[in-house]
Design brief:
heterodimer; A: alpha/beta; Ubiquitin-like (UB roll); Alpha-Beta Plaits; Rossmann fold; four-stranded parallel beta sheet; globular; B: alpha+beta; Glutaredoxin; 8 helices; 4 strands; 45% helix; elongated; binds iron/sulfur cluster; binds FE2/S2 (inorganic) cluster
């Protein structure tokens, strides 16, 4: 790699050619502030908060877009730079609903952090009206444009990373804002609910729709039996809410913290990740052996499912009929578990803790309800759980490690890796391989690991060759589908996760500050926590889990049985792209 | 969302064929969206949702991008123009003489806002900058007719004279 040499505030640094001034400064341990720039997502040089002085350059230069060059002398902390940044902040604040005290992004907001750092005067310029409408039309997201700084990060995430593109900068002058075509509410567009826009937002303009109060109410309602369960990836990220290094597995503390919030039970959703795999592997083998629709697409990501419903409804028969692990868990609790413990399903209040905003939409799907009872009552994101733990005054870092409750405690390593892109595929292959060839001991399918957007592999087991593909990020999903439709790509089994990197990078995950996420590979570090957990386990194949034995023996009979279809499988809905179509 | 619903779309097959030709011409051109929208507006007189949709699908861009461009440049109109076009001058001289009150009176009389068209397609309202008749401020134009030294209470009668 060719290296170049320059000076940042007089400190010599060596960086790879092609680095920006922003990246070179990091090498000198200088954090240049950013607002519109977000690594891999948005690089438009628009907000000018990152300005620096460069010897010989005319005027101030935007560090996020300006290439570093040999012999360059950069100054990041001159009176001119400080004054410019402060004025930029004051202009943004003049048009900002400054409700920091009740803002869920307080202490985690780039605008607030920089305003404090630069001593910006929030009243220097006359405030404009703060009456832009708030869009809370969906069950998962709230947009308050009164807090929007028009950095375009959400638009870039939705348009370029996800290829969904239901939001954009619209209208002009004073009325310019981020919104959907014709200002229709987000719920009337083909938004998939992935929440990638939320985690891209540097401020509190985009947030998940909070369900914390509903959960508190249920916990203090004596007639309700409240059950929590946590998705595979939450253990790998919740620690970030409490200052743990990225990639710390906090499973034990997570369980004890939830227990201290006061529900009746805390279960492990990896159990139904296992159940999903047993059902899905069975469905795959059946489709392959009986000439069913191929390729089969995984169905555990509700963002992806909704994307297919809106954009390629003709491919819905390719989607596995398995419910997602979240929905399967709810269904198991409200059928098998309720019957076994003599509880009326109406008295159960089921809370899933998930990395995902799309799952807040999924719990409202009518076609998954039984007698109008939803499988899951409330889906809480990792961030909401973090807030509840803080509100309860629990000293997270000091907690002892505790275990999930019986009987939904034990799960396989295959269940754990569900949270990373390629994990569902690998988990399914582990089980399918054994089903196709009893002697096959293949366990690690490394070709489908890693954070690359599209991965392909081909495996031959028991005389059957299975060509597989794995994609994360919906723009990549679109590429795969278009390839399949044109006959350029040919697979039997395809795993798709809406969020780049999978659920570890979901739209409900903790938001790291720019100064971390622009330089650290969050996806890889978080995924590593899950793969490490898997390789430390004895039990690594879903179908070998004793809980699966119990569930099938006691209730579901065999994989793919009539009873399984009744509770664990579902149908999909054809949707148009906009409400006005 | 008046832009979307007030007047039913009445595109003809000829217009659609012309639009398809425009789309085919700009389809692969970087920066082709802007001229395609200009020509589409030339064909239809405005850019209704149906036309924006055809352009989005035809040029392989999202509707949100098309809508963003169509609402950013003032040369584009999302609503059709009425049979009679009313334009109220909001230039400095007229504004000082209360032309904002004239505009309000027009909006009230017709029950629509500036930038919109009445459901029967008869009138549309716009505001404009100085039309060079400052001596007559405040000024309103209906098609090519100039009305000067206006008082808000005269507006209704002027509009009525166009419906006879
Ligand atoms: S939730 Fe996803 S699809 Fe919806 S607007 Fe945000 S990024 Fe786009
Ligand atoms: S909503 Fe957030 S991410 Fe989107 S433009 Fe506004 S401030 Fe930026
Ligand atoms: S990848 Fe995971 S977090 Fe993202 S939408 Fe899908 S299920 Fe939710
Ligand atoms: S211009 Fe560099 S961060 Fe916005
Ligand atoms: S300002 Fe109205 S005509 Fe000049």
């Amino acid at each position: 790699m060719e290296m170049i040499h320059l000076k940042i505030n007089g400190i010599p640094v060596e960086v790879p050619a092609g680095s920006t001034v922003l990246e070179a400064a990091k090498a000198a341990n200088v954090d240049i502030p950013t607002l519109c720039y977000l690594k891999d997502i948005n690089c438009i040089g628009a907000c000018r908060i990152c300005v620096v002085e460069i010897t010989g350059a005319r005027g101030l230069v935007a560090a996020c877009t300006h290439p570093a060059s040999e012999g360059m002398e950069v100054f990041t902390n001159t009176p001119k730079v400080r004054k410019s940044r402060k004025t930029t902040l004051e202009l943004l604040l003049s048009n900002h609903k400054k409700k920091c005290l009740s803002c869920v992004r307080a202490n985690n907001c780039e605008l607030q952090k920089l305003s404090v750092a630069y001593g910006a005067d929030e009243d220097r310029f006359m405030p404009e009206d703060m009456n832009k409408p708030v869009d809370a039309s969906t069950p998962y997201l709230v947009r308050d444009n009164n807090k929007c700084i028009q950095c375009m990060r959400c638009v870039a995430a939705c348009r370029n990373v996800q290829g969904v593109s239901v939001i954009g900068s619209i209208r002009r002058g004073f009325n310019v804002h981020i919104g959907s075509p014709f200002d229709v509410p987000l719920a009337e567009t083909s938004c998939v609910g992935c929440g990638q826009c939320i985690v891209a937002c540097p401020v509190g303009a985009l947030t998940e729709k909070s369900n914390e109060q509903k959960v508190w109410d249920a916990i203090s309602d004596p007639s309700k039996k409240v059950i929590f369960f946590t998705a595979p990836s939450v253990r790998a990220t919740l620690g970030e809410e409490f200052g743990e290094p990225v990639g710390t597995n906090v499973e034990g503390k997570m369980v004890s913290a939830i227990r201290r919030l006061g529900p009746d039970h805390v279960f492990n959703m990896d159990v139904t990740a296992d159940l999903t795999i047993v059902e899905e592997a069975n469905e795959l083998i059946e489709r392959i052996q009986n000439g069913g629709k191929l390729p089969m697409f995984t169905s555990c990501c509700p963002g992806w499912v909704k994307f297919l419903e809106h954009n390629y409804p003709e491919l819905l028969p390719n989607l596995s009929s398995c419910k997602s692990p979240q929905q399967m868990f709810g269904a198991v609790l409200k059928s098998y578990y309720a019957q076994k413990n003599n509880i009326d399903p109406k008295d159960l209040f089921v809370v899933s803790v998930i990395p995902c905003t799309a799952k807040k939409f999924e719990v409202t799907r009518k076609e998954q309800m039984r007698n109008d009872i939803a499988d899951v009552d409330v889906a809480l994101t990792t961030r909401e759980l973090g807030r509840m733990i803080r509100e309860a005054g629990i000293d997270f870092s000091a907690l002892p490690d505790e275990k999930f409750d019986d009987p939904f405690e034990t799960a396989s390593g295959a269940g754990a890796i569900f949270g990373a892109t390629g994990g569902v595929m690998e988990a399914a292959l582990r089980t399918a391989a054994v089903k196709l060839d009893g002697k096959c001991d293949a366990l690690e399918f490394t070709e489908v690991r890693g954070t690359k957007g599209i991965k392909e592999a081909s495996y031959t087991v028991g005389g059957v060759t299975v060509r597989v593909a794995v994609a994360s990020g919906l723009a990549n999903a679109r590429e795969i589908i278009e390839g399949i439709r044109k006959g350029e790509r040919d697979y039997q089994f395809v795993e798709i996760m809406a969020c780049p990197g999978g659920c570890i990078n979901g739209g409900g995950q903790p938001v790291q500050s720019d100064s971390v996420r622009n330089f650290v590979d969050l996806k890889t570090l978080r995924a590593k926590a899950l793969y490490d957990a898997d390789s430390d386990m004895e039990l690594r194949r879903s179908h070998e889990s004793p809980v699966m034995d119990l569930l099938y023996k006691d209730f579901f009979e065999t994989p793919g049985s009539h009873k399984c279809h009744e509770y664990l499988h579902t149908t999909y809905v054809e949707r148009s792209k906009y409400s006005f179509e | 969302m008046t832009e979307k619903s007030v007047i039913p779309f009445q595109g003809t097959p000829e217009q659609e064929a012309q639009l398809k030709e425009v789309i085919a011409r700009y389809h692969d051109q970087p920066g082709g969206l802007m001229p395609a929208l200009q020509e589409a507006q030339g064909i239809y007189g405005y850019l209704p949702v149906e036309v924006q949709r055809m352009i989005a699908d035809g040029m392989n861009v999202s509707l949100s991008e098309v809508f963003g461009v169509a609402t950013f440049y003032s040369q584009f109109s999302l609503t059709p123009k009425g049979k009679h076009r009313i334009s109220v001058c909001l230039g400095t001289a007229c504004y000082v003489k209360g032309s904002d009150k004239i505009l309000e009176a027009v909006e009230e009389k017709l029950g629509i806002k500036s930038g919109e068209c009445t459901p029967d397609g008869m009138f549309s309202i716009d505001s404009c900058r100085c039309v060079g008749a400052c001596g007559l401020a405040p000024v309103m134009l209906v098609d090519d007719d100039v009305y000067g030294k206006l008082k808000p209470e005269q507006v209704a009668a002027i509009i009525d004279s166009y419906t006879e």
